[in-house]
Amino acid sequence: MCLTLSQVTKCYDDHTVLNAVGFDVAAGERVALLGHNGAGKSTLMKIILGLIPADKGTIKVLGTEPGSNIAKTGTAYLPENAAFHPALSGYEQLCYYLRLRGENTNQAMPLLERVGLAQAAKRRIGTYSKGMRQRVGLAQALIGKPRLLILDEPTSGLDPVSRREFYVILDELAAQGTAILLSSHALTEVEARTDRIVILSSGVMVANDTLASLRRQASLPIRLQVSASVGKADEVASKLSGDRRNGVMVDLVCRSDEKLARLGDISALGSLIEDVDVIQPSLEDIYSHFSKGGDA
Questions:
Q1: Where does the record place the ABC transporter domain (predicted)?
Q2: Which residues form the domain of 240?
Q3: Are residues 133 and 11 in the same domain?
Q4: What averages of pLDDT result for each successive group of 10 residues across the chain (296 residues)?
Q5: How far apart are CA 164 and CA 158, in angstroms?
Q6: What kind and span of H or E run contains 165?
Q7: Contact between residue 195 and residue 29 where contact means Cβ atoms under 8 Å apart
Q8: Does 295 fall in a domain?
Q9: Which of 100, 162, 190, 287 is close enough to 158 for a disulfide, judged by CB 3.0 to 4.6 Å?
Q10: Closest CA relative to residue 259, chosen from 212, 294, 225
C-alpha cells in the first residue's frame, strides 16, 4: 500500500477533529476524500504530509513515517489555492522547483506542455488566471514522478475543458502506478473518475467503498424515465402507475431490487414505449445519505 491509515485521531483542546479514521490507498488507485467544510479532510491531509502529528493511530506513507525523506521524496501535494511569485514566468517558477528537487531543469517545458501551458510558459505568473496558476501547481506536483499524489480541490478555477484534461492526466498517472487521494466538492466530476469513495462527517469516517457498493448499501430509490409513443403518455402512465411529466415522459420510482421487474413491465408494453433511461442515485445522493447518518 502507498498509504495506510489506522485509527487516526486528532484533537484540539476538547474538540475531536478526526476520530479513529482508517483506510488504504493502493498503487494505481484513485480515492476521493469527501466531506463538508470542517469534516476533517484538510487536517487528515496535513497529517499524511507530515505537517502536523496525529494524537493516536498509525500512518504509513510509502511504508515509512509521514515527513520522512522517503515519504517527502515520493509524495506530491497540490493545494486548493496554489500561490507563486507573480514576477516569475511559469517556466522560471518550474525551473526553481526542479532545482529544489535536484532534478534537471530541461524537464520544465515538457511538464508545462503536459498541463497545457506551453504557450504561456514565458509569461509572468502575475498575468495568469486562477486556472492557469492551478496548472502550474499541477506541473510542480508532477516533478519526480510521485508515487503518491495528494490533491486538495485540484480543479478549483479550471474551466470544463481544463477539468477534463486534468482528469486525463490523473488517469495516466494512475495507470502508471501512482496512488491518488483527491479531496473535492465537485461531486459530479469525482463520480466517474475515482475508484473508491471515502466520506468523512464531523471527523468520523462514515463510508469507504466503491460507488457501486455504496449505492447497494444506501438502497436509495432508482428512477426510470420512460419515453412513451406520441399520444400514449397517459395510457403508459396508467398501466405503469407512473407520473406523467410532460407530453411523452413518464417517471417511475422503484427500489433497486424491483428494477428488473419494472423494466419487464415496461418492455411488455411494446410499441407504446419509445425508450427508457435508468437513473441511478448520484454521488451527491449517496454523499447526503451517509453524511446524514446512513449506515456505512
A1: 3-227
A2: 221-280
A3: yes
A4: 97 93 97 93 96 96 96 92 91 96 94 93 94 90 93 85 87 94 90 93 96 92 95 94 89 92 96 95 93 67
A5: 9
A6: helix 160-175
A7: yes
A8: no
A9: 162
A10: 225
